[in-house]
Amino acid sequence: MSDLSGLAAAILDGSVEVIDLTSPLHSETPILQLPPEMGQTAKFSLELISRYDEMGPAWYWNNIHTGEHTGTHFDAPNHWITGKDLDDVSQVPAKRLIGAAAVIDKTAEVAGNPDYCLTLQDVLDWEAANGPLPENGWMLFRTGWSQYGDDPAAFANADENGPHTPGVTPEAAEYISKTKILGWGVETVGTDAGGAFGFEPPFPCHTMFMGANKYGVTQLRNLDKIPTKGAVVIVAPLPIVNGSGSPCRVLALVQR
Ligand code: MN
After folding, report:
1. Is 58 within a domain?
2. How many domains does the chain have?
């Protein structure tokens, strides 16, 4: 390939469609809430600097306030204790932010059981049908959960026993952690199931993926618009020095 002008032309004429997998970022964007004795992440908010007024007659701008793990965001390996000596978000190589997408769809199962967790057999069945998980690719877990993304209570789906949202079994997480994928993308507030504090080990996706130098991406939308295989996904977190993650834009390129 001598240059990529063909790709640019295909984006312009629509034969390569760009799908935005990012949730909009605003003050009501759902965030993870931990038990009250623990530290909490911040909601996103805007602080007005000026808007064509006496504070700045010709310009509009804001300061932003946010947690690293607010909205559609990226988990760097150092987010978890198992990856504490691995890359921070600024150190993640740019090459490892772009890869082939593999979509595993459990929308029907999750519709019947919000606590549904992907099993090892689910992954093996996907590979039997589609081939191995892609080297340097993004594995995306389609659950339909993004339909609740504008309603923080429905999105958390919590009762007295905690949140009820889909995730991954420890057995499946261990298997995936040993593949060559870049990371694991989900529609929910975090990469693990709502009930994953009670798993053995707790939070298996965080524990095993971060420890294996893989990444997490959350609160994705529009996974129903990309094929099981064949899309390319670009994940763009901010290079926050020493950061453990960052809100990010996530785009998929799909051949039409
Ligand atoms: Mn996170």
Report:
1. no
2. 1
* Cβ-contact 243, 90 below 8 angstroms: yes
Domain membership flag for residue 211: yes
Answer yes or no: is 10 within a domain. no
pLDDT score at 1:
61
Which distant-in-sequence residues (6+ apart) come within 8 Å of 221 by Cβ?
A: 20, 21, 22, 23, 72, 146, 149, 187
**Options 26, 65, 69, 79, the catalytic residue:** 79
Residues of the chain with pLDDT under 50: none
What local confidence, expressed as pLDDT, does residue 22 receive? Answer: 98
- CA of 74 from ligand 1 middle (Å) equals 6
**Cα 148 to averaged position of ligand 1 atoms, centre (Å):** 18
Tell me if residue 79 is catalytic: yes
CATH number for 131: 3.50.30.50
Domain coverage including residue 98: 15-23+68-255
Tell whether 191 is covered by a domain.
yes
Task: Quote the pTM value.
Answer: 0.96
Instruction: Give the whole-angstrom CA distance, residue 101 versus residue 133.
Output: 9
Question: pLDDT tens, 120-142?
Answer: 999 999 999 999 999 999 999 99
CA of 126 to the centre of ligand 1 (A): 26
Distance 191 CA to ligand 1 centre (A): 7
Q: What tokens does 120 get? A: 């090892």
